[in-house]
Amino acid sequence: MSQLLILPVVLPAVLAGVIILFAGKTLAVQRGISVLGTLALLALAITLIQAPTQAYFLGNWPAPFGIVLMLDGLSALMLLLTASLALIILIHTIRTGWDAKGRHFHALYLFQLMGLNGAFLTGDAFNLFVFFEVLLIASYGLMVHGGGQARIRVGVQYVAFNLLGSTLFLFALATIYSTTGTLNMADLALKLPQIPAEDSALIRVAAVLLMLVFAIKAALVPLQFWLPGTYANAPGPVAALFAVMTKVGAYALIRFGTLVFPTDLPATTTLLANLIYPAALATIAVGAFGTLASRNLPRQIAFAAIGSMGTLLLAVSAFTPPATSAALYYLIHSTLATAALFLISDLARTRRDGLTAALFMIAVIAMAGMPPLSGFVGKLLILDALRTDPLAWAAILLASLLTMIGFARAGSDLFWKSPDTEAPAQSQAAVLLCLTALIALTLAAGPVTTALDQTAQALHNPTAYIAANQLGGR
Amino acid sequence: MEVLIAIAIGTLTACGIYLMLRARTFPVILGLSLLSYAVNLFIFISSRIRLNAAPLITEGGQYSDPLPQALVLTAIVISFGMTAVLVIMALGGYLTSGHDRIDTEDQHADRPEDPIARQIGDQP
Q1: Contact A163 B90 (CB under 8 A)
Q2: Is the interface score ipTM higher than 0.85?
Q3: How many domains are contained in chain B?
């Protein structure tokens, strides 16, 4: 079982290399390899989600000296989410022919999956930086896929913003290394409570720098400026895949906030929570007003995605097991809902008939958090976990209303005031799959939340995670 | 020695941030490069300054920590690659749009050829 842990990283890397070396010219072969690879990743993720918490020691180096890959409930969940989303989006890409509009789409796509899987699996802070760069450099390529002036110019902004984030990440890592002498996350969790009091200011600086980096990824206000332009100008399927990119930031915040800088750490205590909380409230507001004010659909969806990140991080900032569990449920939901909306907006560019309109309505109901879909369940869980916080309640409920109004206006403009268009060969299969996944998430809310409760408990009490690193030697 | 390196890192970072805030892509790229030089130095000295010490543990002798040297190599390679990507993309942006301003005006950046943009944007 332990050897399986490396496959979600190695498999896409090898397949991407194979595509570039041997199938650079034939699109059909590229598509075949890409689909088979994504299916294999999905099968792997389903296998791994049933596995217990475990470590994979790269090169068999013992833990604080070598790099470890760690599998726990949260990583397995993110792997499964990424693989399912990747398959859905790949189907859409192939059926709509987006991959034929530029070169190397499938290779970049697989490298992107490699980076995402690696970021979710790694147990080493510096290795997390490396996988961030892998997924970013692939995303730069995907973002400008198909070319065009607006896309490239927005792409430059996106790259510059993320390069600045990478620099901050390195400053934070070097500060942590110089105070603790380790970058293994489990080792940090053991060593940080014991640092001398005169070093605790440095740790606070490093913690806030790290939080800034993850906030850039998660598009937390005031670091969200890169997102609307990037998502609105990226090719439709790529924007849908980027729905999971913001979740990398949320994942890293949850991981570091529970494992490395928990609220009972003397050096930081509730520093991170106190910073994330107001930023998340502002993010919800910006997302809601942006959704109301945007004048085209992809941009509107981008703002709705920002709003959903705000809701998610508001729950994360509580740093309690029930709130984390609710945040994880909402994370799955918002990834699928955002992706579905981007795929529908991609379809609606050419085809606006009754079925597309109906799909749009279902996706909007999910995104805004109206009953009966999983957005409602997710927001309900979050509100329940933040029961003592009237401000959070007001923000989430008002934002849902504004999002609904914004999308209702966009939907009526798009589908009622414009003539029906019947473009041939546009397939709704991927959107249907995405919405089916949302409905399944709603119907299976009971078992899913039970599993997520366990995951959240394990996150807030990471003894199994630390023990799996075998820091005392094997 | 510590003071000298601290001043060097501080100056590089300040210049980098100043250039990052310019409105053209070329100064922004230069600023990012300066920032990456600053952070490389910063990583390099994160194991404290040791003069004339090999990265080997010997009997009673001084040694320098090899890990930051490995980290800084990784960081150099990555920032080099990323800067190359950024230069190519900035060049592409310059060649397709005829100028290298980094800001994008929202109305014009939103795919004006896009039917959805037209559909929703032009409604009264």
Answers
A1: no
A2: yes
A3: 1
